[in-house]
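Lab channel / #folding
Pinned by the channel admin:
"Please post every new chain as: sequence first, then the structure tokens as a reply. Keep commentary short and put observations after the output so the thread stays searchable."

First post following the new format, from NK:
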Amino acid sequence: MKIFEAYSIPDKPNRWFDTWEEILAYLDGGGHSLAAWPATVGGKPRMDRITFDTNTQRKIGAKGRAALLSPATIKVRRNNEQNGCLASASIGYWTEKGARQRSIYPVEFLDEIDWKQFRSIAGNIERLVAKSAPAKMRSYSVMPDAFTRYSNGEIMLWNWGEPCAYPSPLIVQNGERVGVLAP
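Reply from TO:
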């Protein structure tokens, strides 16, 4: 599995990560566009250059950025921090049917991918995330470190518009609600 920055920092090349330490440093530094590519499935990511409009160039002092694109990637979507709370993150990926119906990728590119193997790998990752989460907030898995920090009162979770402190009826742990629902 190759892990990389899907969208580069302006005027810099996309970064590829070899170690978990590099990934953690990237995320701790505010990085938010991770993607994973299981190289054995084909569909090697291709570079697309994005040129900023004149106003954006003037505002941020950069001409553009690079994007590495492939329908055979598993994207990590981070909502980062919202009003001091830990916000949701999710993974997303194309299915063969969806990619053939709605994607921007040429048919020849889609034909390079072993879709059965890709679906298996992506499904295994989803199951691993779900099994390792000790709790959920609505449909979102709360991972072990975040849940420990949350239940100890060190952090709050972002509930799409409002902070969620512990305990909360929005949190389900071992099939049971952690807080009491208001009458």
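NK: The mean pLDDT is 91.
TO: also worth noting, The longest helix spans residues 115-132.
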